[in-house]
Amino acid sequence: MLIQKAGYILVLSGLAFLFFLSGIVTPLFGIFIFPFSSAALLLLFLKEGALSGFLGIILSAALVYFSPYLGIGFIPVFLLFPVLSAVIFYAGLSRKDRKIKILMRSFLIISGISLVFLVLLASGGFQFSSLLENVSSGIRRESFVLMADIFERYVYAFIVMSTGIYVLLSYVYAEHFACRIGVKTGKLPFSYLWRLPEWFIFVFIFSLAGYVSANIFKADLPILIAENLLFVVSSAYFISGITIVSFFFKNVKLMRFVTYMFFFLYPPAAMLIGLTDVWLDFRKKKGDDNESDNKERC
Questions:
Q1: 83 exposed, middle or buried (CB, 10 Å; 0-12, 13-18, 19+)?
Q2: What is the mean pLDDT of the chain?
Q3: Do 142 and 235 sit in the same domain of this protein?
Q4: How many domains does the chain have?
Q5: Are residues 261 and 182 in the same domain?
């Protein structure tokens, strides 16, 4: 029994390190590899308990520290994303909280800390565009300068959206592999049932009003804040529009594909559908009901 426990600690903490390393060194697509690190730690918590989970964290953090490709500079990133998300997930699942609530809590905490960290870096004169240098090969100079300028201006929105993707994929990956090691987890709702809460429309109105007001008074910092907030809110409504199409065409793959292509070519259409869903409620389901919390994977 003790040998088996030690085996799980070694294997899953080792996988957490390997996926963290792979996510860091893989340009662009690393965001889809990175969440496996958190999933591995969460599975260790669920399989062997809190003590084994924290031992796995210590071991994987040591691997990050002594890695010639990472080092001490990546320890804060490892603690903020894989470790913190795994701990929040485990704490929520232990209390039998609703899955959507757990995901939202993890997203808000991690994105909030990330934004504070970015603000501190920006106040110290750090240039965020320097983070793109490892993906600049093969890109025309003019295109790279444009991409760097956009990234520098909207880095706050990018980190919030990336955190949302990371948190969601972390749980989805853990849920997928849970049965294979004898762990039971609750299901997330089908993606086509996901619906933004009705109060989110006020966030959109507030950010739009802030953007208009800031432009009237020519205030650079409020404009930057409002633009990033609008970017995040618009992306959320874009995804909401996509889920509505998935709901209506879930059995017609061709129509789904055609509609997706149209939406990606003309994003405002998906955003408009997402916004009108606040009043029309196309799926006739409330956001709080779109979850099968009591169902299990195994």
A1: buried
A2: 81
A3: no
A4: 2
A5: no
Does position 183 have pLDDT exceeding 80, yes or no?
A: no
The DSSP secondary structure of 202-255, one letter per residue, reads: HHHHHHHHHHHHHHHTT-HHHHHHHHHHHHHHHHHHHHHHHHHHHHHTTT-HHH
Is 50 part of a structural domain of the chain?
A: yes
Q: Is the pTM of this model over 0.85?
A: no
217, amino acid identity: F
- Asked if residue 124 is part of any domain, the answer here is yes
Residue 70 CB coordination number (10 Å): 19
| Boundary residue ending a domain (124, 157, 188) | 188
Instruction: Provide the sign of the torsion angle of the four alpha carbons 225, 164, 190, 238, taken in this order.
Output: positive
DSSP class of residue 289 equals G
Q: List the helix and strand counts (H, then E) for the chain.
A: 12, 0
Q: Which of 146, 167, 188 marks a domain boundary? A: 188
> What is the percent of the chain with per-residue pLDDT over 70, rounded to a whole number?
80
Q: Judge if 153 and 40 occupy the same domain.
A: yes
- What pLDDT digit, counting tens, does each position of 23-43 carry? 888 877 888 899 999 999 999
284 pLDDT tier (thresholds 50, 70, 90): low
* pLDDT tens string 45-55: 988 889 999 99
Is 172 found in the same domain as 250?
no
Q: What is the dihedral of CA 236, 240, 243, 247, to 10 degrees?
A: 170
In the chain, the amino acid numbered 26 is T
